[in-house]
Amino acid sequence: MRELERAVRVSLAGITYHVRVLEAAGKVVGISDGHYRRFFLSTLVLVGESRRLNEEDRKLLAECRRPASLAIILNLAVDGPLRHRDLEVRLGRTKGTLSFHLSRLMNLGIVSRAPVSSAEGYAVANLSRVLSLLVTFSASLSDRVDAFANLWLSLGRREPPPRQNPRP
Questions:
Q1: Is 138 helix (H, G, I), strand (E, B) or coil?
Q2: Boundaries of CATH 1.10.10.10 in the chain?
Q3: What is the pLDDT of residue 145?
Q4: What is the SS3 assignment for 97?
Q5: I need a surface site. Which of 18, 71, 74, 143 has the fewest CB within 10 A?
Q6: Cα separation of 20 and 147, whole Å?
Q7: Which CATH number is 54-168's, of 1.10.10.10, 1.10.3210.10, 2.30.30.100, 2.40.50.1070?
Q8: Which segments of the chain are extended strands (E)?
Q9: What is the pLDDT of residues 13-70, one digit of tens each?
Q10: What is the model's pTM?
Q11: Is residue 148 predicted with pLDDT exceeding 80?
């Protein structure tokens, strides 16, 4: 709602009122993750698949607004399956932070456990669905991803370009 407040320059109270009216009318669908509430048009259609966004799609897109979750998803989509330690090193996150986000992603069915060599790792559960959504909505996620992810998503490629330094 704060993003809407900034974009349309209406008070947060005004945005709250109008979003509630739209939600009650079935024009938008709200998804809550316990911390944030994200909103989607109820009639949003995935053009390439000729189907409306479903609950799982909305949850995936809402989770992708979390930079750490999106980074995990992108790394697993491009180079997965990966071990916990590999993700820690790649993302520069602590073991606890990474475990928190992996747990969220597993509970949502976005990530699943997968064998990696002789150890256990993680992979994207439904890679084709995730890639389709990420490529389709890459423009709306662009403020949450680094140069690597922007380039990869805009091209819709399965192989990563050379890594660049993240934005400061």
A1: helix
A2: 54-168
A3: 47
A4: helix
A5: 143
A6: 36
A7: 1.10.10.10
A8: 28-32, 37-41, 45-46, 51-52, 82-83, 111-116, 119-124
A9: 998 899 899 999 999 888 887 788 888 888 887 777 778 888 888 888 888 888 889 9
A10: 0.72
A11: no
